[in-house]
Design a protein that fits this description.
- This is Na_H_Exchanger domain-containing protein.
- With about 55 residues, the chain is mainly α.
- The protein has one domain.
- Helix content is about 70%, strand content about 0%.
- It is built from 2 helices and no strands.
- Helix 1 packs antiparallel against helix 2.
- The longest helix has 24 residues.
- The protein starts with a helix and ends in an 11-residue tail after the last helix.
Length: about 55
């Protein structure tokens, strides 16, 4: 179960990063916004044993 949840976490965060990069490419997300959201996703990947909490960072 732990490995499955870890895989879901990676897939979710990778998908979010792709979405954020696409929005940046479309001009809908600033450079600073992209850096911040990328950092949030990367931090969430590094803290695999804690619940996802991207928006509080």
């Amino acid at each position: 179960l732990h490995e499955t949840l870890a895989e879901y976490r990676v897939r979710l965060l990778s998908g979010l990063k792709r979405h954020f990069h696409a929005k940046h490419t479309e001009g809908l997300l600033s450079d600073r916004g992209l850096r911040l959201l990328d950092w949030c996703c990367d931090s969430a990947l590094d803290e695999a044993d804690t619940p996802l909490d991207l928006w509080e960072r």
